[in-house]
Structures are given as structure tokens and as C-alpha cells.
Amino acid sequence: MIYTVTLNPSIDYIVRLDKVLIGSVNRMDSDDKFAGGKGINVSRVLKRLGIDNKATGFIGGFTGKFITDTLEEEGISSHFVEVEEDTRINVKIKADAETEINGPGPDISSLKLEELKNILASLTADDTVVFAGSSPKNLGNTIYKELIGLTRKTGAQVVCDFEGQTLLDSLEFEPLLVKPNNHELGDIFGVKLESLDEIEKYARQILDKGAQHVIISMAGDGALLVTQKGAYFARPIKGSVKNSVGAGDSMVAGFTGEFVKSRDAVEAFKWGVACGTATTFSDDLAMAEFIKETYEKVEVEKR
Question: Which amino acids are annotated catalytic?
């Protein structure tokens, strides 16, 4: 079974209007509300690919119920730890300029943290766990080391979608996959990466530190998979960019779902590219039919 862990999920409230006038009453043209959080996005895309999975993490209040109801409607199993405070709301204003106002999320008590640890400690070597996104403020991202270490003791594989020090900290647990973009990879090593050769060089350093597979996403410039067996470049696919939110999560879902089935890293990479690209060209997370159409356009070459 694939599990996704979202420690600080959200309702993503999307507001659309032509222009925001500060200090005035603004009337939106349209709005949408989505169950948000990187792990939840992974769960939703996996389900659209026909891959069963279970979402876990912390959830609370009427906002948390919106998320669990949404997952239930989409046929996604969940086993969240319920907390007293409300799950956060992240407001994303799409106007002449995009603006985000993100909530802090609930405080997590030591008792509730233990409940989540018990869930993770019950997993087996047949499971794969996707850890993604930020942690509630009172826990801090350092909690991931404890949770990932606990999960690995069960024999389960882990996928870690983080940035910066949190990503580096995860490498001692030999994650199945890490997926920084080219800018995040450069920031980790304090360099500006301008060529594919440079990107591959530093991605291999991430491998050397423990990762089993590294995908470097490069937005409109394609993506690079680096493994112990070789490096593989996916050419960019042309299309109309509509959405950047969830594209990376979709890529993680595509790779993880296919790899768990086939153990073929290159084929998993192709599905990751297809899912990430399809979401970029969609208003929300991509639907299965469009992902399959996009897969047919994926071109991967060994470097």
C-alpha cells in the first residue's frame, strides 16, 4: 500500500478577480475550494491513476471535515489523526498579480503526535510512504527525521518531497525518491546551475548522500532522472500553462505509483513527467484521460 503523509493540510481557497484594490471592497469573479496539501495532492493523483492509497496526517475542525469528505467522494481511504484546532485555510488570489495568504495550521500535542507515530510504526516492508510539505509550526520540519526513521524501521520505503535542509536530513534514510527542482538543487549546494551537465553533477551528489533516485524538475526545460544506472532526460512538452500548483506533487505520484508496480525507474519517470506536465496544463490536478494522452508525448533519452 502507498501511504501519503500530510502533516499540515489545508483548504486551498482560490479567488479570481481582475485586480485587487487595497483598502477597498473587492468582488471576486469566481472561486474554488480544494483539499490541499502536498501529500493529499499525491493521493488524489494516485487515485486518478487507479492506484489505491491511504492518506494520513493531522486534521481538525470543520475545515478538516471538508478535506476528509472530499477524499471520501474521490474514493480515497484516509486514517488521519484528529486534533482540536481547525485545519488551516490557504487563500490564493489570482488577479493582475498572484498573491497567497497561508494559514499557520493547528498546534499538535505530544499525545496526537504519538497517535501518528503508532500508525507509521504499524506499516510493513510491503508499504511505501510519501512524506511531503511543511510541518505545523510547533513541531517544525525536524520532526520529519523522527517520523521517517520510524517508518524505515518497519522496512517500508519512503519518498521525500522537501526542500533545503529537510531534504538533506532525509538522505540518511535512503529515500526511494527525492525531487528538488533545479533552483532548489542549486540552493542546497550554494551554486547557480545553468547547464544539464551541472544539474546532473549535483544530483549525483544527492545520490551519493543516500537517495536511490533523484528527479530534477526544470519547469519548461524538461526533467532529469539520475540513478546509479544512469541519467535520463525528458524533453519538455509544449502546451498552455494554466497551473503550477500541484505539478510537482503530480510528478511524485506518477513516479511512485508506477515504480511500486513495475520497479522500472525509467518507466516510472515517464509517468511522473506525464502527470506533472498534465497538471501544469490543467486548471486543477490532471485527470486520468489527459495524463494518458500526455504520456504518449513523453520522450526520454539516456545521457
Answer: 249
